Amino acid sequence: MNFLSHFYFDRDTTNCYHVLGTVLPDLLKNADKNIILHPEKLRHTDNEVNSIIAGWNKHLDVDRYFHSSDFFTTRSHQLKKLLAPALIGSPVKPFFLGHIALELIIDNLLLTTDKISVAQFYDHLDGCQDDKIKSFLTFAGLEDTAVFFKFYEGFKKSQYLHTYAETHQIAYALKRICMRVWKNPFTPEQEVIMDEILSNYREEMLNDFMHIFEEIDAKLTAGN
Q1: Any residues with CB less than 8 A from the CB of 149 and at least 6 apart, and which?
Q2: What angle do the packed helices 70-83 and 210-223 form, to 10 degrees?
Q3: What does the alpha-carbon distance between residue 6 and residue 59 come to, in Å, rounded to a whole number?
Q4: Judging by beta carbons within 10 Å of its beta carbon (0-12, 13-18, 19+), is residue 11 exposed, middle or buried?
Q5: Average pLDDT, whole number, for the chain?
Q6: 107 near 4, Cβ under 8 Å?
Q7: 3-state secondary structure the chain
Q8: What is the domain count for the chain?
Q9: What are the pLDDT digits (tens) for 161-202?
C-alpha cells in the first residue's frame, strides 16, 4: 500500500512517531533503494524510537495482508490487462504498472471520499524531531543518514501527496514513479490513454474499495 493508505489505519492516533514508522519503510526506499533495514525485533530505551519500530512493524503487517488478498490479486490483474495495450513500446511492465496504479487509485479514493486528511498526515511528520528519527536510523544500522534526510525534507516541503486528490494526476504520479527507473517511460499519447483508463477504473472501484481496509483492519485486530 502507498503512504496515505498506511496512514488510514492510524489516522486517529496522536503519536506522530508511530505514524512516521508506518510510512518509513517506503520513505527509505524512495530516498535510496539500496537502504535495507530490519529493525523489527529491536527494542530501544527511548519510547519515541520504539514507537517508530511499532509503526514499522504495522507497515509490514498491512503490506503482507494487502498483497496476499484476493482484492489485490484481482484488481491489479485487471489493471494490468487494461493498461497493457497502452504500454506497447514502453519499457514499463504491465504487472508493475497495475500494482502501482492500484495503490495510487486507492489513495485517491481515500482523499476524495474524505476518509483521511493529507494535512493531518503532514502535521504528524512535522511533529517528529530529527534527532529522534536519526536515533532510530542509526540504531537500526544506517550509518550515513544524510541521503535520507535530504529526501525527507524535500518530501515534507513539496507536500505532493495533496495532488493525489486530483484524479487526473494519477497517471502523472505513475510517470514520476517510473522515471526513477526509466528516463522516458511513456509518450504523451500513452499518458492520455492511461489517464482515461485509470479514471474509468477509479469510478468502478468507488463503491467497494473500502472492503479491503475493513478486511485488513479485521486481520490486524485479530493479530493483536
Answers
A1: 130, 133, 134
A2: 150
A3: 7
A4: middle
A5: 95
A6: yes
A7: CCHHHHHHCCCCCCCHHHHHHHHHHHHHHHHCCCCCCCCCCCCCCCHHHHHHHHHHHHHHHHHHHHHCCHHHHHHHHHHHHHHHHHHCCCCCCHHHHHHHHHHHHHHHHHHHCCCCCHHHHHHHHHCCCHHHHHHHHHHCCCCCCHHHHHHHHHHHHHCHHHHHHCHHHHHHHHHHHHCCCCCCCCCHHHHHHHHHHHHHHHHHHCCCCHHHHHHHHHHHHHHC
A8: 1
A9: 999 998 888 888 888 889 888 888 999 899 999 999 999 999
Residue 74: CB atoms within 10 Å:
11
**Dist CA 194 CA 174 (whole Å):** 10
* Residue 40: domain span: 3-223
On whether the pTM is more than 0.85, the answer is yes
For position 65, what pLDDT does the model report? 98
Whether 28 has a pLDDT exceeding 70, the answer reads yes
Task: Return the percentage of the chain with pLDDT > 90, whole number.
Answer: 88
Residue with cell 513539496: 158
Q: Is the pLDDT of residue 107 over 80?
A: yes
How many whole angstroms separate alpha carbon 152 and alpha carbon 149? 5
The confidence score (pLDDT) of residue 176 equals 87
Q: Residue 38 has which C-alpha cell?
A: 530490519
